[in-house]
Write a sequence for this structure.
């Protein structure tokens, strides 16, 4: 029975095990906002590879989600896919590095993901 409980705990492990606050949290907030801003630096040239207005709209959606820290893994995945078109130019490598950094570090405590999915203390009422 103890082995089953241990496996259930492993299955419940989140993608990001902690949401740092204070200095590291502010640093992650700045990293997310910088990544979102750099994603939108070249609104015309980089997206001509895909063609049409949809890639730019998707980039805006990914940038807003990333800056707010909401649905961060989805926003990062979308941003990484859209960034593949920018890799021939130097800005594409910068965006790729920023997005991968946020992906590996997590959104931080100052994000909507931390508010929604962050760690909580569960208290059980005492038995009578």
């Amino acid at each position: 029975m103890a082995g089953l409980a241990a496996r259930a705990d492993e299955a419940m492990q989140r993608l990001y095990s902690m949401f740092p606050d204070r200095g590291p949290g502010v640093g992650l907030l700045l990293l997310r906002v910088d990544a979102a801003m750099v994603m939108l630096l070249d609104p015309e040239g980089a997206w001509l590879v895909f063609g049409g207005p949809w890639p730019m709209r998707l980039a805006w959606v990914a940038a807003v989600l990333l800056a707010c820290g909401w649905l961060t893994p989805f926003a990062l995945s979308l941003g990484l896919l859209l960034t593949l078109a920018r890799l021939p130019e130097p800005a594409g490598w910068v965006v790729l590095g920023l997005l991968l950094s946020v992906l590996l570090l997590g959104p931080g405590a100052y994000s909507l993901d931390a508010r929604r999915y962050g760690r909580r203390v569960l208290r059980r009422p005492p038995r009578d």
